[in-house]
């Protein structure tokens, strides 16, 4: 659906890259390799997004790196739209609904790095988690959001990397 509003595939991929996780950053050549597109097409979109204030750029080791501008007035709105586009809002809602005593929900893998490969890896930690419901939920979510969902369950709290969608202790 978002493809009909944002007709540039490159722009949409850049928004996903930088707004799924505000910690994601990259430079022109890295984006060109990751997306398999010419540097000119990516440079044009990076310039447009930077001129609009949606992205910020800074120099790092003789390279210009780009990152989401978390101070932009529409940052939260864009982030929420991108997460809805990927189905992350629905995924979180479904997990918390009937899975058990969820402590954390963390995105890992490609999607946490801002690459929409069609697979969403989710780490769920907590106690008394309903494994059977998760298996059923994975199949249902795949139909709803048109992406493969892989759940990994873990007891207790997790301190590894990834994008934290829910953390009971931190109030997120």
Automatic annotation (TrEMBL):
Keyword set, alphabetical order: Transcription, Transcription regulation
Protein name as it appears in the record: DeoR family transcriptional regulator
Coiled coil (residue ranges): none
Record's keyword annotation contains Transcription regulation: yes
Pfam families in the record: HTH_DeoR (PF08220)
Position of the signal peptide: none
HTH deoR-type domain span: 19-58
MF annotations from Gene Ontology: DNA-binding transcription factor activity
């Amino acid at each position: 659906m978002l493809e009909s509003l944002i007709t540039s595939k490159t722009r949409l991929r850049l928004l996903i890259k930088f707004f799924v996780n505000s910690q994601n950053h990259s430079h022109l050549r890295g984006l060109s390799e990751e997306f398999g597109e010419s540097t000119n097409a990516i440079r044009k979109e990076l310039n447009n997004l930077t001129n609009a204030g949606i992205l910020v750029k800074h120099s790092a080791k003789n390279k210009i790196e780009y990152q989401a501008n978390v101070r932009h007035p529409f940052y939260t709105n864009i982030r929420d739209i991108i997460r809805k586009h990927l189905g992350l809002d629905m995924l979180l809602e479904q997990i918390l609904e009937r899975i058990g005593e969820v402590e954390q929900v963390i995105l890992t893998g490609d999607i946490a790095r801002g690459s929409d490969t069609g697979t969403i890896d989710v780490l769920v930690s907590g106690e008394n988690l309903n494994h059977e419901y998760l298996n059923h939920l994975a199949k249902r979510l795949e139909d709803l959001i048109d992406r493969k969902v892989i759940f990994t369950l873990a007891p207790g709290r997790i301190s590894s990397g990834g994008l934290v969608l829910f953390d009971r202790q931190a109030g997120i």
